[in-house]
């Protein structure tokens, strides 16, 4: 008798799922309570459950086919479009990736990150392709475009609470700053420290100010500050403007200092990050 009741309840839950009377995760919870056979339980891959696929609406599949066909058409005929239409096509594809990435950011983080990452790669790659296609190869234009993409990634990271893209945005701006320094100023080791360490302090301070409002944003800014801590030496290694022996000595001193600070302030920054 108990088994019969369980079957009836499971049948009702499946009916609720198909008719959308209850949200998917409620149905999954009830199924886990009443389904005695583990083999029949719903499993998920990358946040998408088996039952969600089996009971999905035909409109979702149609939308997926239409979007796939649209993106394929844009890719194959991209060079034949006029410049404004090319820009609109890139915006459309990137917007679709970002839109669905935002949608899945909480429900299926892996899919959300993958879609936002795909959109970010499309934004950067298509932009450089258009610049080369239309003979706009000046370094200043490319640099401005990298800065533009970086700011987009910062905004996306903040809005979607995706720390990886938030950090990538700041990293892009750091690279732009490094390029401008290299092109316009010849720095010794003191100049390199003065060019980067104040920014390190600034970002750490901003992270501390923001960590109460948003721990993820505060943690990202702390990580950016930690990255900037090493930038004078990395900059010197890349440009060759600082001797290798001095760079090694500076790195050793900074490593000891960073370890001491992290250990001494561990009770504060661990709360800040976690």
Automatic annotation (TrEMBL):
Coiled coil: none annotated. Keywords: Membrane, Transmembrane, Transmembrane helix. The chain crosses the membrane at residues 60-77, 83-101, 110-130, 142-159, 164-181, 187-210, 217-238, 244-265. The keyword Acetylation does not apply. The keyword Metal-binding does not apply. This is DUF2157 domain-containing protein. It comes from Paenibacillus ginsengarvi.
């Amino acid at each position: 008798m108990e088994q019969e009741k369980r079957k009836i309840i499971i049948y009702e839950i499946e009916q609720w799922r198909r008719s959308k009377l209850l949200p998917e995760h409620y149905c999954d919870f009830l199924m886990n309570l009443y389904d005695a056979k583990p083999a029949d339980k719903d499993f998920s891959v990358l946040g998408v459950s088996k039952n969600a696929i089996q009971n999905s609406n035909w409109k979702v599949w149609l939308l997926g086919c239409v979007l796939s066909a649209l993106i394929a058409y844009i890719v194959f005929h991209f060079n034949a479009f006029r410049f404004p239409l090319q820009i609109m096509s890139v915006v459309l594809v990137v917007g679709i990736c970002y839109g669905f990435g935002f949608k899945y950011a909480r429900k299926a983080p892996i899919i959300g990150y993958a879609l936002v990452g795909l959109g970010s790669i499309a934004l950067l790659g298509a932009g450089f392709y258009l610049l080369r296609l239309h003979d706009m190869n000046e370094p200043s234009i490319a640099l401005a475009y990298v800065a533009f993409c970086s700011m987009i990634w910062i905004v996306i990271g903040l809005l979607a609470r995706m720390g990886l893209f938030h950090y990538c945005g700041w990293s892009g701006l750091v690279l732009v700053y490094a390029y401008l320094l290299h092109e316009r100023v010849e720095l010794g080791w003191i100049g390199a420290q003065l060019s980067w360490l104040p920014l390190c302090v600034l970002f750490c301070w901003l992270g501390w100010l923001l960590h109460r409002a948003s721990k993820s944003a505060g943690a990202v800014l702390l990580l950016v500050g930690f990255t900037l801590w090493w930038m004078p030496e990395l900059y010197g290694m890349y440009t060759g403007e600082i001797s290798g022996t001095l760079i090694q000595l500076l790195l050793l001193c900074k490593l000891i200092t960073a370890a001491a600070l992290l250990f001494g302030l561990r009770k504060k920054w661990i709360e800040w990050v976690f």
